[in-house]
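STRUCTURE REQUEST FORM
Protein name: Myo-inositol-1-phosphate synthase GAPDH-like domain-containing protein
Source organism: Streptomyces flaveus
Requested output: structure tokens
Priority: standard
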Amino acid sequence: MSAEAFPSESRMSESRVPESRVGVWLIGARGSVATTAVAGCAAMTAGLHPPTGMVTETDLFAGSGLPTLSSLVFGGHDTEDCPLPKRAEALAAGGVLPHGLPTAVAAELAAADREIRPGGPLPGDSRDIEELVAAFAADIGDFVRRHGLARAVVVNVASTEPAPVGTELPPSSLYAAAALRAGCPYVNFTPSTGLHHPALASVAVASGLPYAGRDGKTGQTLLRSVLGPMFAQRALAVRAWSGTNLLGGGDGAALSDPAAAAAKNAGKERVLADTLAAVPEGEVHIDDVPALGDWKTAWDHIAFDGFLGTRMILQTTWQGCDSALAAPLVLDLARLVARAHEAGLSGPLSELGFYFKDPVGDGPSALGEQYAELGRLAGRLREPGARAPRGLSGEGR
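Status: completed
Returned output:
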């Protein structure tokens, strides 16, 4: 499929749109991660909770001109119909959100829910690819116009889909194409195909938009990106590295499909391949445990050799709440990519590899090196040549 299959509509005119608010259009907008991000943003804006887990709220990004949390406006696509306030209540009952928070930010949740449009394709949907992309792009464009937004960033936080078979565009790629058509930067926080589909390569280049992804690094792979370099730097020979993930909720159900699990594991394996001198034996297994809900456990067993061939073992266990780990990263990425767009950056933002298992563009896989790259991006956004946003501020930390 060529770039002509998705002709670009006229972009949002920056000269006509007041630079005051930034849209965050979430694919999977009624899921746990999206709900936690919306509720968390409202809670931090109201001063109810500190910005724990948000790198963009640290001194690293002071003076980088990021949009404030209070300037973010939420909307999105989803195939589910459970309203955000009700979803937030369920998350609070499960211990994901603090008790009482859904009530405290009920108005903000309801406002975001009013901006969620039906996704697709659903069973029986007769629209072809072009009609679906056009409809999704129109929803995003309408959102931007009605709210007078300076720009909007599309972030995919939907459940993992299986890798596509053949040339057909999977749903994640339809949403990615719609984002480009609407003139919006795109972030793929999932291992789904999104902009990685060959049919969209030329479209992404021609769009002149920044984009980032894929698959948010929130737990097991985050730890691997620290431990892998440690073994390499200390000249310790890793013989085997095996892992198991126990997941509940929607992600666990989606990843019970072997094809979806394979897409997820590819990023985990890439980190080890890139940070170790040789790829060790071992695999990663993913088990769906519905009783865990939004919580996950990741266990790693690492066999390595020390001096004189002495055999040793390191085992790690990571237990965390998936949505609470992911939501601050989603907010970070929305702010960073929006500012990159404002500053005139385009193409793959490899400096954001810090956030991903399988990042786009060229860049290191070790977390320390990725953090240094992120710091360099912060510096670029502070440079005099980067267009400063009007009416937006990254201050107030």
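Reviewer notes: Residues 122 and 244 are 33 Å apart (CA to CA). The domain at 3-216+324-382 is CATH 3.40.50.720 (Rossmann fold).
Form closed.
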